[in-house]
Design brief:
The protein folds into two domains: 303 residues, Aminopeptidase; 150 residues, Alpha-Beta Plaits. 33% of the residues lie in helices and 22% in strands. It contains 13 helices and 19 strands. A six-stranded mixed beta sheet has the order 1-2-6-3-7-17, sandwiched between helices. It has a four-stranded mixed beta sheet with strand order 16-9-8-18.
């Protein structure tokens, strides 16, 4: 789960998409065997040290493949492809109609590094204690990977025949370079839609009661730019008209004074409208006015003045690092500025680079894109997807508000959206913000979340794979 915006989503806990509470569906039943298997898969998953450079992702993929084979998946329908020291896993649950586009289930097998000496428990030895399961990756992202695998195994045992193929597509380097994600997206780009277990999820209050369910349907593009100036340099006692540091200072000032145009889409308008109902004062009023009319410049100005909300209405670019000069008594030969941008869905990286060029307005500035970022548009809030999520959440907590959101960080969904696959973050994990330790020390998940997650995935797959 990447950079869940608890503040934004908590403010949006008003009933955006709320159904009348109904009786629990029979799909909501999870027997002791199913629950125990899911927990066993999760524990075994944590024990694989799938950190970059450790070479354990292929072994983990092989373990998950064995679970699926034991449930009835044909060996020919499971593909593990090694990609350097990591790997991808594709498992196909064949449907009745091969002409229908498949639905994809996404997650990642890799985790971030964890040093045993810093943890209260060994990070790669799963420990159940006081109602929690501890271990690196137990939240990010092995919980939902395990729940998806357990659900596919359950459906096989039940003899379920989907109308279309269901394809489990697990990446192996989401936490680093996303090379495996790009490969999977290129191979599976013809899919109907993607359900990602690494985004979204339910938020519990500190009293343990569910507050709302967050649905991730878009992500801002992360992109770094470097703006550089070079001069011949020389002795500081002989200053010249051109000075790379002065040029860089001017460019920095120009960027700081510029705001990108206001933007909105179906997703951000829905999120802001929901948030407005629970946000008092001027900010709440501005949210509602902007959601109703994105051309309302006064409302946009109010939201843009608040660091919590500016990212929901604009592309943002901010200076983050500088490096200049080489000696105290020498004219600078070079000066560089790092600019980090979070780009609104649907806006190209090249167009942002062009705008930075215009804003800096210095022909001697060299502006380069760092790395190989990917941009994507937001996914539509499709009626079939929203109805399936509504049914699945009602089976867990009838009438719980569902709040669509746009993430500031990137998940595997980014690359699938970029090739035209509508993608939705629908994690089954419900937890309190105070329990969220993904990427940090003593990462944990509440054991009580397992049964509900199994219910949710079971219903989602049966509804959307028709």
């Amino acid at each position: 789960m990447k950079q869940t915006r608890y503040a934004i989503l908590a403010a949006a806990a008003a009933a955006l998409i709320v159904a009348t509470p109904s009786a629990m569906a029979k799909d909501a039943k999870v027997d002791a065997r199913q629950s125990a298997q899911a927990l066993d898969i999760l524990k075994r998953s944590v024990a694989f040290k799938t950190v970059a450079g450790q070479g354990q992702v292929p072994a983990y993929a092989a373990y998950l493949a064995d679970v699926l084979k034991a449930a009835g998946f044909a060996a020919d329908d499971i593909q593990i492809e090694r990609r350097g020291e990591t790997a991808t896993l594709i498992a196909r649950y064949r449907g009745a109609d091969a002409s229908k586009k498949p639905i994809l289930l996404a997650g990642h097998m890799d985790v971030v590094e964890a040093k045993a000496e810093d943890w209260a428990r060994d990070p790669f030895t799963p420990v159940a204690e006081n109602g929690y399961l501890y271990g690196r990756g137990v939240e990010d992202n092995k919980f939902d990977v395990s729940m998806m695998v357990a659900t596919l195994a359950r459906l096989k045992r039940e003899g379920f025949k989907p109308g279309r193929d269901i394809i489990l597509a697990l990446s192996g380097d989401e936490e680093t370079d996303m090379v495996t994600t790009r490969a999977l997206a290129a191979e599976l780009k013809g899919a109907e839609l993607l359900l990602n277990g690494d985004a979204g999820g339910g938020m519990l209050g500190e009293d343990g009661k569910p507050m709302f369910y967050g649905l991730q349907a878009g992500e801002k593009t992360y992109a770094d730019f470097e703006i550089g100036f070079t001069n011949p340099g020389g002795h500081s006692s002989r200053p010249t008209k051109k000075n790379a540091i002065y040029q860089l200072a001017q460019a920095t000032s120009q960027i700081g004074a510029y705001q990108f145009p206001v933007q909105a889409n179906e997703l951000t308008r829905a999120s802001l409208r929901a948030a407005s109902a629970q946000t008092p004062g001027e900010i709440g009023q501005a949210m509602k006015r902007f959601a109703d009319n994105p051309a309302d410049t006064e409302a946009a100005a109010v939201l843009s003045a608040d660091p919590e909300w500016i990212g929901q209405v604009r592309t943002t670019c901010v200076a983050t690092m500088m490096n200049a000069g080489h000696a105290r008594n020498a004219l600078p030969q070079s000066a560089t500025l790092s600019v980090n941008c979070r780009i609104f869905p649907g806006v190209s990286i090249d167009s942002v680079k062009q705008k930075l060029t215009e804003v800096v307005a210095d022909p001697e500035a060299k502006i380069t894109v760092v790395g190989d970022p990917t941009s994507s548009d937001a996914s539509p809030l499709r009626a079939d997807v929203m109805a399936a999520i509504r049914k699945a959440i009602d089976a867990r907590q009838p009438g719980l508000p569902i709040v669509p959101s746009m993430s500031a960080g990137a998940t595997d969904s980014l690359h699938f959206r970029a090739v035209g696959v509508p993608s939705y973050g629908v994690a089954g994990l419900f937890m309190k913000p105070s329990d969220a330790y993904a990427h940090g020390l003593n990462e944990r998940i509440p054991l009580a979340a397992i049964d509900g997650a199994l219910v949710q995935w079971h219903i989602l797959l049966k509804e959307l794979a028709k």
